[in-house]
Amino acid sequence: MTVTQGTMAGTTMPQVGERGLDRDAVRIRVEQGQTNHTDDSTSRSVASIIRANVFTLFNGIILTAMIVVLLTGSWKDAVFGLVIIINTAIGIVTELRAKVTLDRLSILVASPVLVRRNGDDVEIAPSEIVLGDLVWIRAGEQVPADATILHTWGLELDESMLTGESRTVRKQEGESVYSGSTAVSGMALVHVDAVGEHSYAAGLTAQAKVYKRNLSDLSRGINTILRVMSFVVVPLCLLLIWSQLHTVGGLGNAIATGAWRQAVVSAVAGVVGMIPEGLVLLTSLNFAIAAMRLARHHTLVQDLESVETLARVDCLNLDKTGTITDGGIVADALVPATADDWRAAETNRDEAVQATYDLCNEENPNATGRAAMELFAAEHVRPGELAARIPFSSSRKWSAIVRADGTIWIMGAPEVLARGFVDAARNAGSETSVVDTVFAPVLERVQTKAAEGHRVLLIARAHLAQGQAAATFADSPALPAYAQPEALLLCSERIRSDAEATLRWFRDQGVRCRVISGDNPATVRAIAANVKLTGDREPVAVDAHDLPQDIDELARALERIDVVGRVLPEQKQAIVKALHASHHVVAMTGDGVNDTLALKEADLGVAMGNAAPATKAVAELVLVDSKFSHLPDVVARGRQVMANMERVASLFLTKTVYSALISLGVVLLAMPFPYLPRHISYIGALTIGMPAFILALAPNTRRYIPGFLGRVVRFALPGGIAVGLSVLIAEATMPGILGWNLSHAADLAWQRSCCAMIVFVLGVLVLALVARPLASWRGVLVAVFAAAGVIGLFIPPVADFFALHIPQGGALVALMVALLASVAIFVLCQLASRVFARIFSHNRQTRQS
User: Where in the numbering of this chain does the P-type ATPase A domain appear (predicted)?
Assistant: First the structure.
């Protein structure tokens, strides 16, 4: 703690009577916990990331099955359990990398604040502020806690992080200021009313800090399968164990001979086959790859499943400042105050340009001044001769220069200057109606330019009073009783160069964009029109105060609205809820604390890299370099993942269908299970897992359409039924034809090898259907994996490990016949499914008509 002697950084502090809290009062408040300490976490905790990836229904089912197999001592058949480790590791590592990156982005050096305690001004850390402290707020500093202004010296605040309103707000004594605001000019002494978690900003983000795990349509479909399987698995597993024990002579014989182990392994083979473990792994892997690719484009993915949400977005809510505009100011033009063209104006343009340049050319010009000087740079304007200067003051809202001939040029807010000239005329005993007559058309022109999206400054000309010296005017600046409006300086927020092209991409892709802002709706509408938010159509803008309160009514109103201005944080959240009520998938961009509730409510929250820490903490995506133009690539990447994953999910669900059918058939027919877990691991890797991984990375920009699970099930049923029937028929007929006794281990091993080969051949056919069109690299892909499966049978270590043996003699002939019959069954099932689909489609069209 540093005690200052009434000055800070060269600035003399005003003398006030308040002494502030003494040491004992501060100590008591610290003991009572009334300090300004807050939880500044900027991302999810390590524990929450680990919990979200470890404790899943899928992991529970697979882990249980793996433990059961390991207890039998058959570790080779527990290979499927590695999926848990890989899948969990991918999720944890990827999300931890995102956390580390985000935490690095959010490291902020907390500047000390100046408080008055016991009559002295002392420097302390923001977290050491206590309830009741007196705090100095100075230009350039952030308000550290909610407070009430006791004394102000022209304090102006930027509250955009809280309200979304980009204009500065002049504060008066007795008014409240909130933590998160930034002082733009002036200073004030304030009394702290709320600290820490009780502050406005903390209350606004309290709901947002509760972690919301996104659940993608793909994951939802997988979890639906897992939930169904979880009800089926336990009774079916018990039935499978009972049936397998029955095939080896009953429980007593199984225990005596140790055959119970093989019975359990066989039962687990049926259970594991029904669980699409490869699909879960591939989903996580593809989400992780997409996240890494996006990271190369400066887009940070905090939640892997949000990648899939990108594919479904059909509604994008944009915050204006920081998204469409970059927050900077640009001077657009200097125009006559009362005419449309300088040729029709009484004022000489060169004279007005020189005056405006000199007015802006202060020692430390503000953003507007710098923008105006850049506008005139091409004209090679140089500083003119001045007799005096009155710098811009936030309390006056105007600045002025005086020429040697006594001419005064004044620049400021039009409404302020017009009102000031009227007051000056009244005080001088002059006729105020003359001033009103002169400035009325100017103010109308100002309103017109403001509606076009401009911020307008007025440049007026006056003269020193008779006998008044320039130095006297500068020492006691006051507006003269009469001035002539000469020019208007038109400024606007600087629009990002990539905004128009990015919005065009979203329009072409069928994504409806809306601008939701805290600014004046007319200004926002003009900016939206400039970037062609709605193409050739003029955007429809409304004031948030005019929106209906009822969610359903709001949803209907939003269908015709493109721009909403003067929006409060709660209203942003309500807009997202209303769009959800209309069944839209909503993405929301933002950078301020005022956006946190809406980002949390949205299906996909997108924060800018320069956003408030609380905003980045709740967002699923962070655009690290704050470039809006990254969003098309983000959406395209999500569409690629989802469209391809729907294609390959059909492979995995086919396995689920035939595994369930075979398990049920084995129980009903009381016969040995037709293959081992390691068989299905080998077949799944070559006909599902590895080819699916390659197919999932192929280019694909098709927009995702809801109904993933239904489409996948319709594809998987014919193939799954064909495989299940073929294996059960082969299991029931081949032993009788070949004279095999399945109670003998050798004969059972031959039978299982034959059934596994049937599954493999039909699995290749399913892969060929999924990979279509085959007249490309996709056909080569199918051929390569089919060949790899066959070649593996002739490699002794591979064949021995996976217990796959090619039969000889008559058994080989029987296998060939069984394979041909299986292919025929597969073709018939596919034809039947198409016939049923056409009948169903025809009946539905008939009912609709």
Answer: 110-206
